[in-house]
Amino acid sequence: MEIINIVAIIISPLIAVSITFWNQRRVDKKDIKEGVFFTLMENRSNLYISLETVQALHSIDVVFQDDKQVIKLWSDYFDSLSPISFDEDKNKRLWLDLLAAMAKNLGYKNLTQVQISKVYTPQMFYDQVERYQKLTDNLGTVAEASGNLKTKPRGTKSATPNTKTNDKAS
């Protein structure tokens, strides 16, 4: 009986520590998944895709590797981004499917695609994009008209290389 008590005294803390580490890893994985999901949700209505969104999309394969449905939907969505076969309606549907599957994986079972598709974008954002587009178009027109829009590919040398003259007589 004493041996059982001694073994229990030695093994109990090891089991407790193992359970604590296992639970912490599980919590950390869920936190990372939620970070990716929240980033995509927060940026889903952006007029332009942000670096933060791109980074979140790139991490889906690793973070959600245990969910075949999420991985498949991510792959389908990625394929839909091809400029050759881009279909905006299909793309939006796949985007909603992906976010809904991620929500389900994280336990947000009552979050519907209708709720996910609801976004608020103030008119001022559209106005800013329109003003920026007009400004860049006008700047391009002015630069072309003035003849100052001379570009050369990076890494090429100018047509007239810098040559130093030697002032000393030979």
3D structure, described in words:
The chain has 170 residues and is mostly helical. The chain has a domain at 2-119. Helices cover 67% and strands 0% of the residues. It has six helices and no strands. The chain has helices at residues 2-42, 51-63, 68-80, 88-105, 113-117, 123-146. α1 (2-42) packs antiparallel against α2 and α3 (68-80) runs antiparallel to α4 (88-105). The radius of gyration is 29 Å and the shape is elongated. The model has no long low-confidence stretch (mean pLDDT 82).
Features of the shown structure:
mainly alpha, single chain, about 170 residues, elongated
Task: Describe the structure in brief.
This protein has 170 residues and is mainly α. It has a domain of 118 residues. It contains six helices and no strands.
